[in-house]
Amino acid sequence: MAAPTSADRLGRLLNLVPYLLARPGIRLADAAADLGITERQLREDLELLWMCGLPGYGPGDLIDMAFDGDRVTITYDAGIDRPLRLTPDEALALVVALRMLAETPGMGQRDAIERALTKIESTAGELADAPVAVRSPGNDDRLATIRGAVQRRRALRITYYTATRDVLTERVVDPMRVVVASGRAYLEAWCRRAEGVRLFRVDRIDQLIELDSPAAPPPQAQPGQLSDGVFNPTPELPLITLRVSRGGRWITEYYPCEEIIAESAEHWLVSLRAADLDWARRLVLGLGPEVSVVAPAGLADAVRDQARSALAAYGADLG
């Protein structure tokens, strides 16, 4: 992770005063958590703010605050009472993201999205008219068919690409709803083949046919809880341990990890659950020299065997 810059701190300081003004008496620990910094960093920022204010730096011009135990209240803001405005790039990024959500079929709380988009566009000025078209390539017709099947309560026959096993499978499903999680559209349905509720990524449905038979999910088919994401690791899934160098540490932010141990300044030991070992093998191979397998031994052997086969195709030797 890159060291914070002076610009990072300046932006935080400029936002800190209006943040605290809106929350008089907030606990330092709660404020630090909201701002994504440590309590020590927050205290250092507050000490610096005490020296900030209008030109002249007289006692009546500087920012002032009162402490009550572990709580802080701004008593004088020196005119710094509004948060920073969005930069053009930030405003455009928000406009694009909100337009993407608004164009996603099956998205809930569409009214809230439209209201937020209207507010951002009204402050973005001419950027709101930027020629940016947001669409889900290749998914529109598929999503429309899926949404129709959900509304008509019809079963679907789908051909689905399962990324964890790198295979195409054909199955009949009973649609329950269309959901959006982590920026992707999913069909949640009872899978007759697996005899369970499954999430099918819409962009991985290769073919689908709406059947004449009605969708009939059994009583035990209940929608899943997706507030923590699509993948919910459970104890029965294989646990893998990897030694990760700096270039591969991003996986600790992208995947839920059970344990992270800093072995040294260069290497971390990372333990996480995998959907299966085929998925883990592809993850490790994709990270290349940034990672090595500590456990299980079967995963290390599978990675080594595939690496040898790949090198053999180029006349090289793994050693």
From TrEMBL:
Residues 143-208 form the WYL domain. Residues 8-121 form the PafC HTH domain. Residues 239-311 form the WCX domain. InterPro entries: CBASS_pafABC_assoc_protein, PafC-like, PafC_HTH, WCX_dom, WYL_dom. Coiled coil: none annotated. This is WYL domain-containing protein. It comes from Rugosimonospora acidiphila.
